[in-house]
Design brief:
Blueprint (H helix, E strand, L loop, with lengths): L18 H11 L12 H14 L3 H20 L15
Length: 93
């Protein structure tokens, strides 16, 4: 049987983190990740939220792991890596 999560009081606006702590976290993550926005089905979002809660992991961490697994499997199936093309400039007309 799964261990029950403790009751959480959501009345504290800052969740116990100071602005200094938040700034340190923000600076630490700058440059290490890129924001990626996408649409997902509502039921999938609900399951993702639940998984993040029950595993004490961030949704970003769960999605990062899932995407890495998918890419690894897809590259194995095609017997080659996906080629990352260099950036290019679009000339003004």
């Amino acid at each position: 049987m799964a261990k029950e999560k403790p009751d959480i009081d959501f009345d504290d606006d800052d969740a116990g983190f100071s602005e200094e702590d938040e700034e340190k976290r923000r600076r630490r993550s700058e440059g290490t990740k890129k924001q990626f926005n996408t649409l997902i089905r509502p039921g999938l979002e609900e399951r993702l939220n639940a998984a993040a809660f029950w595993t004490d992991r961030s949704k970003a961490d769960i999605l990062d792991e899932a995407l890495r697994q998918w890419l690894r499997q897809a590259e194995e199936e095609r017997n080659e890596s996906f080629e990352v093309l260099p950036p290019h400039e679009v000339e003004a007309s």
